[in-house]
Amino acid sequence: MSQGQTNPRWTLDQARRDVEALGSRARGSISVPTPSSASHTAKQVLVLLIPSPIQNILYPPTEPTSAVSPRPTAWLDGMRGIAALLVFFYHLSYSTHDVYTGWSEGYHDYLRLPFIKALYSGPAMVSLFFVLSGYALSYKPVKQMRSGEYDVLFSGLASSVFRRVVRLYLPCVASTLVIVVLIRLGFYSRTYELATDADRLQGTREHHAWRYDTTTEQLWIWIRSFSGFMNPFKETGLGKGIYMDGHLWTIPVEYVCS
Fold first, then answer.
1. 36: alpha, beta or left, given left = phi > 0 and alpha = psi -120 to 50?
2. Which tens digit of pLDDT belongs to each residue from 15-28?
3. Are 212 and 173 a contacting pair, CB within 8 Å?
4. CA terminus-to-terminus distance, the chain
5. CA dist., res. 189 & res. 246, Å (int)
6. Would you say the C-alpha torsion 143, 149, 152, 158 has a positive or negative sign?
7. Which residues of 178-216 are buried (b: 16+ CB within 10 A; e: fewer)?
8. Does residue 67 register a pLDDT over 70?
9. Burial status of residue 125 (CB atoms within 10 A of its CB: 0-12, 13-18, 19 or more)
10. What residues does each domain of the chain span?
11. pTM, two decimal places
12. N or C: which end of the chain has fewer CB within 10 A?
């Protein structure tokens, strides 16, 4: 055998020994988790799910954090949070009474007074949320355009097209799939009488999800509805909610407009 050539037999034997050594090290490193370690892991997961402000109160940092200058649009996050909270109040209110008519002749309820009605003025807050989101999303690209950073601009825009799909629609997949599970477990059947009671729900009565005969049919309806909901080129995916949750109609609008 000439110099520079390797022995195939030696290579195969050496590879076999390497694999056996790797396997023995892997077997030695595998251990069954103890109840204490499993409990510690579960605790870490639960702490991770707690909002950051509450985490800082329950578990204050041991070392002082370095001062980081806030983003130029950080103040908009607070405004969007307030707008989202008022939209939540709106959805809690509009099934029980007329939330669209303000203080006027024949409508002298205290909930219709100025400033009080603003606390559950959902449509106005949705518009405000769209305006704030549009400003926050446009600030950086416009700044890059004015500074002539076109390579970074196009790269960021192309990347955001795909990243925003995941950020916007993945939570919707999870939330609507939970609804499917609740429907199959019969929770929606128990509340059907209340959902269709015009005496107790005198305002907007939302669509009550129907329980189909089989789980396969229920999942198929969910998949079909979600496919149209995610498609930005179909009318069913723009400005219209998904069958399982009509409140999600803003998601395709935000994706298309961004």
1. alpha
2. 456 545 555 554 44
3. no
4. 66
5. 18
6. positive
7. ebbeebeeeebeeeeeeeeeeeebeeeeeeebebeeeee
8. no
9. buried
10. 73-148, 159-258
11. 0.63
12. N
